[in-house]
Amino acid sequence: MKRLLMTAAVAAGLALPAAAQDLTVAGIVFQQDQFFRTIQMGMEKAAADAGVEFLSGSSESLPDKEIGLIDTYVARGVDAIVISPISADASIPALQRAVDAGVQVVTYNSTINSDLPVSYLNSNQRDLGTSTGQMAAAFVKDRLGGTARIGTLGFKALLPEISADRVDSFIEEVSKGNTIEIVAQQDAWLADKAVQVAGDMITANPEMTIIYAANEGGTVGAVQAVRNAGKQGQIFVFGIDGTLQLLDFMADPDDVLQAVTAQQPFVMGEMAVTNAIKAAKGEAVEKTVIVPVLGLSRSDPAAAAEFRAGLEAIQ
C-alpha cells in the first residue's frame, strides 16, 4: 500500500493512526508557537482536500527527537517527509537515509545544505528584516528625531543563517538616513526566555529606545519585557511574524509594538503538503518557492484589520 507521510513538527509528540489510507501525510516542526500551529493548519487542509491521511510530530528543537521521527517514518515505509529542519548540516544524515529509502523530502521555513529536498518553501529571510527595518527607519526619523539605540533578539544558536539574514537586513534598513547605535545583540526565540533576556537587556542598557526581535516568540517576549520594566513610551518594539496576539499588541494603546512583518504560514504549510503529494506521485514540483511577506504597522490599522480577518477565518 502506498503511503505518504509528511512531517511538520507542530504537535507535541508522534501520533500514528492504526488505519492507513492510500496516502498518509505527516509534518514535523521544531517548536510550539502560533506560526508553526498555523503551518500545521495549512498542512491539514491540503491533506484533507487531497483525501490523504495526515500525521504530525514535534521535534521540540531536539536533534535526537528529529532523527527519531524521521527514522520512524522511514521504517513505516512513507513516500514523503515534509520538515522544517533544525540544522542545515546536522539534519542531513537522517534525511539522506530517508532519500536512500525512496522517500521524497520537502523542506519549509528552514532547509539543509544539500540538494536532497525536492522542494523548499519559505519566505525570503532578508525581505522579512528589510520590511520591518524600513518601517522602523520611518519611525526613528518621525518619532525619535533620527537617532536610536537598538537591541536585537535573534536565534543564531538555532538557525544561524536565517537569524543573521533577518537581523542584518533590519539593521541595514533602519540605519538608512538615521544615526543608529546597536547596544546589545542577544539570542532568545521562545517567548518565556525572551522576556528574561530582553528584561536583562533593558536593565543593562537603560538608554535603549528600540528592541527588534527576529521571530514571533522574541517579539512577544520583548513587548512583555518593556511592559514589565514600565518603559512604555520609552522603548518601542519591532518584530517578525503576524499572529492574533501580535496584532492585539500592535493595537494596544500602550504604544509598545509598532510594526511586524508577517509571513504566510498557512499558505506555506498548504503548499508544502501539496508539493509533497505531487512529488510522491512522480509529478514535477518547483525546486524553490518563495512565499511573499507583508509589512503591518500600527500606523496602518486598516491593513492590520484585513490581515486579522484572514487569520480569524482559518482558526
What are the SSEs and their pairings?
Blueprint: E1 24-29, H1 34-50, E2 53-58, H2 63-75, E3 80-83, H3 92-100, E4 104-108, E5 119-122, H4 125-143, E6 147-154, H5 160-174, E7 179-187, H6 191-204, E8 210-213, H7 216-228, E9 236-240, H8 244-251, E10 257-262, H9 265-280, E11 288-290, E12 294-297, H10 301-314
Parallel strand pairs: 1-2, 1-3, 3-4, 4-5, 5-11, 6-7, 6-8, 8-9, 9-10
Antiparallel strand pairs: 10-12
Helix pairs in contact: 1-9, 2-3, 4-5, 6-7
What integer value in Å does the Rg equal? Answer: 20 Å
- Order of strands, main sheet, comes to 2-1-3-4-5-11
Tell me the series of helices and strands, N- to C-terminal: EHEHEHEEHEHEHEHEHEHEEH
Q: Write down the CATH class of the largest domain.
A: Alpha Beta
Tally of helical segments: 10
- What share of residues are in beta strands? 15-25%
* Total domain count: 2
Q: Please describe the biggest sheet, giving its number of strands, its sense, and whether it closes into a barrel.
A: 6 strands, parallel
Structural class: alpha/beta
In the CATH hierarchy, what is the architecture of the largest domain at level 2?
A: 3-Layer(aba) Sandwich
The termini sit apart by 33 Å
Mean pLDDT: 91
CATH-assigned homologous superfamily of the largest domain: Response regulator
- Regions with little confidence, pLDDT below 50 for 5+ residues: 1-21
Count of individual beta strands = 12
- Helix content, binned percent: 40-55%
Overall, the morphology is elongated
- Provide the CATH topology of the largest domain: Rossmann fold
